[in-house]
Specification:
- This is Cyclophilin-like domain-containing protein.
- This protein is mainly β.
- The longest helix has 7 residues.
């Protein structure tokens, strides 16, 4: 499933995984989120509805470009830098291309929609 993130007039293309949590996330699109900095590694935002993660691995080691769901907090996490293994993190998809728009300091507004 192809989606796009629109941040400050920049469009980032991404592909969602073929998984139950990714389909749950896609069902919430289109959506506009206020993405906040977290750990100088990712941008995060609360989703309106939690995602079903039944059958997913216990965690992942995210890389730059990963779109993920952090089940313990119920938030979306978009990584612009790699990070260590995180229990409760579920990969939803991946952004292709430049991640500079995500590296801006402070919060950014992102519109996420189908391509």
């Amino acid at each position: 499933m192809k989606i796009r993130l629109i941040i400050n007039d920049q469009t980032l293309s991404a592909t969602l995984a073929d998984s139950v949590p990714a389909r749950d996330f896609a069902a919430q699109l289109p959506i506009t989120l206020q993405l906040e900095d977290y750990a100088a590694t990712e941008k995060i935002a609360q989703l309106p509805h939690r995602l079903n993660i039944a059958g997913e691995p216990d965690g992942i080691t995210p890389v730059a470009g990963d779109i993920a769901f952090y089940a313990p907090w119920g938030n979306l996490a978009i990584f612009h830098r790699p990070f260590g293994y995180s229990k409760g993190l579920v990969r939803l998809g991946r952004i292709e291309g430049d991640l500079q728009a995500l590296r801006a300091e402070g919060p950014v507004e992102a519109r996420i929609e189908f391509e």
